[in-house]
Design goal:
Rossmann fold
Length: 271
Amino acid sequence: MKPLTQAEKEAIQYTAYRTVAALAKNTSIPYCREIIQRIVDENKAELVETKSYSSLPYLIELRYKTSEHIIREGGYQQVIELGAGLTPHALNLKQTVTNYIEVDLEENSRLKRRIVQELEPSLTVHYVAGDVFDSHTWSRLNSLLKPGMPVAIFAEGFLIYSSQEQRRFLGENIGAILAEHDGLFFVEDAVRFHPELQGIPKIKQFTIALTNRSKNTNYSEPITQEALTQEWQDMGFIVKRIEPEKKLETAYSAEDEQILDTLKHWLLFAR
């Protein structure tokens, strides 16, 4: 599997700051504002400026709250968060999850560890610093899993940039874990998987901006929900579609509500 380029890594690290900044600005999710303050204290205020970050910030809250809803509702005590960024899932799930594993690139992982230790010194989180498209990362991740305990695996934000080859690599590794431990893999729905929305001016502008910012051309190549579902089924997963958590604090328009009504997330299970 071809690893991420340096340009892709830098763009991913950049968007990690903006995601938690959008949550801090638009929601009352615990720890978001504290994380932002610590980033500002490290003279990185320009990284968390949200004015030009996203015209669809409600999608960030949507995926965040749906992820936690799935984990809490399923009573999962073992969790793998791929591309964890700086969002505070581990902090907010500390009463539910006993074995929390975060995977992210070195710079983000190092900063996240330092901030979390300052906010909750007693919290135990396993930080795996590495590229999710590198087999060595998965070897380290597997060594941290506890036997006999189902695992919830999820990824917010980076699968929308993935190629079919990258999804196949992830599917092979995730499928092996679910076959051994049981559990599920949560995949967020996104406007990339709805070509019928690309004619909306707001969506078109968003797609162009996100493609330019991420240094990744995959996002500008929409695929349908049906095609993505078929991909997961061809990899051997049982696929279930669910409605996202729509009780949002982030403001959105009537047009945005129509977009929200098209979304259904994926839950993947081992056969």
